[in-house]
Amino acid sequence: MTGSGACGQCGAAASLRCGGCSLVHYCSKDHQRQHWAIHKDQCWPVRITHEEGKGRYLVASRDLSEGQLVMREGPVALGPVADSLPMCLGCHAIIPAPAQDQDMFRCPGCSWPVCNAACAATERHMAECSVLASDTKGIGPPTSYMRTPRYDIILIVRCLLLRSTNPATWEKLQGMESHAKKRQDDDDPHREAAATYFTKVLDAECDADTVNHLHGTILTNAINTFGGRGECLRGLYPTLYLMNHSCRPNITLRSDEASILYVRAAVPIKKGEPILFSYLPPTDPLWRRQQDLKMIYNFQCQCPRCQDHTELGTYYSSPRCTQCHEGFLEPYDGPGSPWSCPECSAKREQEDIAMEAEEYVAKLEGKCATVEEASNLLNDIVNTFHVNHFVWLTAAQTVLRELQEVSAEALSLRRDLWRRLIHLYQRLEPGATRRKGVSLYNGAVVEREAATLHLAKAGLNQPSPVFEEGLTRAVRMLDAAIVILELEPPGSTELRWLELARKEKKEIFDMIGAGNPNEMGETTG
Ligand SMILES: [Zn+2]
Ligand SMILES: [Zn+2]
Ligand SMILES: [Zn+2]
Ligand SMILES: [Zn+2]
Ligand SMILES: [Zn+2]
Ligand SMILES: [Zn+2]
What we know:
Elements: E1 5-6, E2 13-14, E3 16-17, E4 25-26, H1 29-39, E5 46-51, E6 55-60, E7 69-73, E8 77-80, H2 117-120, H3 123-133, H4 152-165, H5 167-175, H6 180-185, H7 189-201, H8 208-221, E9 223-226, E10 232-236, E11 244-245, E12 251-255, E13 261-265, E14 276-277, H9 286-297, H10 304-307, E15 339-340, E16 347-348, H11 350-362, H12 371-384, H13 390-402, H14 408-428, H15 434-457, H16 465-485, H17 495-512
Parallel strand pairs: 11-14
Antiparallel strand pairs: 1-2, 3-4, 5-6, 7-13, 8-10, 9-10, 12-13, 15-16
Helix pairs in contact: 4-5, 4-8, 7-8, 11-13, 12-13, 13-14, 14-15, 15-16, 15-17, 16-17
The structure holds zinc ion (ZN) (6 copies).
């Protein structure tokens, strides 16, 4: 394989590439051999491929199994998301709300909020402090304790620093897609504010084109992650930015406390198949996905789900036809054009369809404290939308959150909703996803509660078949959940779900006196 880059062993110009992953270059066969001791743990089963019209993207270089680690990569630049609560620029913790705005601790150098003097003195912040401090009038730093888009500039500053600290990575950023030309035409106030701030206020030694390119590069390529305390961050990753999008992804991304991303196959992936990641939540309806992909990433999605008018048989965005009440409307002429009913050919504008659903969702809260209220709400939804619709999914999530009633009926509703949610999530986002693991855990808790309540209501002091069947189902679900939740990287805050699932399983085993849960049942799933 050829191509050019820096030798993984000595850094000299190199034209050979590792045949396993094609991600690392070598100046000679000798250096490749010497580097193997280090590289063998990083020779990931992916390679970069190029296709006319699609650009460069990642494909599997071997067959991958469900849950398998595909890649692990750290960010070359990491920072707050554009719109953030005051965040410490040293350790990335969200600053706790102060009694008064003026009590917020600020870096003595640049006046941006930090936890304390020690955080102001961290290597991460010291590197950027003098650039931020060149804003002598204090135009940039947040003035009060609220969510603010001012954090948009931090990641840009950190990228600019790479010019001197890591020229090779800076070169790489220059080569990433930014759609800067196209973005220049739409008047995005945030882009314009950033360009003005960097050229007129900060002493950052850069022109508007450089800022626009970086701003666009971040919008197009940054991946959102969570830090060690669950804070929202975004990072640029040197290889992972090459993952293509699909509204039906085949991998999952999980991050550890240092925002190192772990890519795992969610489903089996065949050698040569693309590595597909969903840039947006797969639980967004068609119109939202299409609009955001166009606006943020500048393309029209051609994934199998978007190309199928039924969204792969789910009818996830389809309302019931208001003319014949039999059919569900489908976008036969592509997203954006009017949708029509396969039964009676009635037509409706997409805008109208989207607005009806979005308005319905906006009014869901506060309507489902009792089983009766929740059932009425869910019945009304299936009269208006398909039973798998995005509105139904959002309503089911709302009911599970808000249902106050404690009764056998409430447990039976919860159990039904979890079962259907797990099924629908799997159709949208198949395989070993965190969402599946967490839902299986929650579903198992309800199964156990229902079984226990049954026993208490029947006044039995002996386990009944219904009780035992319920607990067996719960254990089976927990086993399946544990296998998935174990895939979280070390240090991830999401490992709390694994602990909960293990604890729940132990409690069930204690209840039935079956001994150590780790010796039993762990082999299933
Ligand atoms: Zn070399
Ligand atoms: Zn390799
Ligand atoms: Zn801090
Ligand atoms: Zn500072
Ligand atoms: Zn799509
Ligand atoms: Zn119809």
